[in-house]
Amino acid sequence: MIDIHCHVLPGIDDGPTTKVEALALARACVADGITHVVATPHVFPGRFDNHRAGIAQLCMKFRQVLVAENIDLELSFAGEVRLSHEVIDMVQRGEIPFLGEVDGWRTMLLELPDAQIPLGSINLVRHLAGIGIRPVLVHPERNKAIMDKPERVEAFVDEGCYLQITAASLVGQFGPRVSVAADFMLKKDWVNAVASDAHNLVGRPPRMTEARHILEQRFGKGYAEELTYFGPARLCGREREKLAVPS
Ligand SMILES: [Fe+2]
């Protein structure tokens, strides 16, 4: 499986604090059936002041650590960008760590706040589209306004946003309202990827295999494969024809 949203890099956000913890999470990813993980530290001005160059450097260093430890896990990077007016300036300054490119559009993980959909969110998405960027909205099912009315996501889908649901939401870790919202989006066929959003081994481990089994049981093997492998690969900018069929 390809995991496009994981806080696996050490000491950069609310993921692992130390290299040892980060290695433990990387091993847990492998054990969970993940072959390629995209390290996506928070990019949240004023809270986690991360940007492309710093994340790239840490990713390179951690990749060497994985090799030294014989951990067979492909590692790339992007960032979980918090929705704010600062995003536009960051794009212009080249500070956004993009996920990849799809059909000429750059893709970027975009996170809403927990409680509401801020006024102007759709305008920001439109502005991004105007400069060739398509957001991947991360875990919309965990946003309270969307939990109240999951159809609120449609406005983002209509503007070309991709959607990423979190594995633990399908498993039920965040409660029934989150699962119901995730289910609504799956049934509408709005979802492009399921990702771990793992932060650690205790409260936020990967859980991709469990989520994949649930998808298989409810929607069939093909759909489960699409959301855990081909869809994520596409959002990273990989062509389907060049991908191996997952085991
Ligand atoms: Fe995250």
Description:
There is one protein chain. The longest helix has 17 residues, at 52-68. Strand 7, helix 4 (121-130) and strand 8 form a beta-alpha-beta unit. The mean pLDDT is 96. It is built from ten helices and ten strands. Helix 9 (208-219) packs across helix 10 (221-235). By secondary structure, it is α/β, with parallel strands linked by helices. The strands form two sheets. Strands 3, 5, 6, 7, 8, 9 and 10 form a seven-stranded mixed β-sheet that branches. The protein has a three-stranded parallel β-sheet with strand order 1-2-4. 41% of the residues lie in helices and 17% in strands. Bound molecules: fe (ii) ion. Fe (ii) ion (FE2) is lined by residues 5, 7, 80, 197. Fe (ii) ion is lined by residues 5, 7, 80, 197.
